[in-house]
Amino acid sequence: xxxxxxxxxxxxxxxxxxxxxxxxxxxxxxxxxxxxxxxxxxxxxxxxxxxxxxxxxxxxxxxxxxxxxxxxxxxxxxxxxxxxxxxxxxxxxxxxxxxxxxxxxxxxxxxxxxxxxxxxxxxxxxxxxxxxxxxxxxxxxxxxxxxxxxxxxxxxxxxxxxxxxxxxxxxxxxxxxxxxxxxxxxxxxx
Length: 190
Description:
Layout (H helix, E strand, L loop, with lengths): L6 H24 L5 H8 L3 H29 L1 H18 L6 H18 L2 H9 L4 H47 L2 H6 L2
Helix pairs in contact: 1-5, 1-6, 1-7, 3-4, 3-5, 3-6, 4-5, 4-6, 4-7, 6-7
């Protein structure tokens, strides 16, 4: 029997796809702290304003999750996940042009973090685990959840290296490119 015909294989591929998507979105969101000092130096907004932007990002990430779940229930998880990936990539791509607290709140606080919230663990678990048989759901959930931690493990040093090599703006654009490459993963989870 070929592996592609094995139902267990397809369950694990589904879980691996969801874990990869979570690794990218969660890793990108959790590496935002690395940009605080370069943003402060570049924009001159001050640590207080940038900290407020990061607080808006946390609030946006949490507030978007139930809304994304409702969108996933109504229109399908693939659409909710794709919208999240696109918003996150757009937020990262536009951040280098944000030079005020308001524009930074929109790019980082709403688009980037809200996009990460729309493609977060809650939506991914609902999309993937519902198609996995009961006896494999615990393992699949754990594998998907581990993707988020793995993303932070990979993204933090990667973004730090990008900041050192190509500057914070280049690192943001690199993040946008990496995030947009996750768009096909959302299609798998529709």
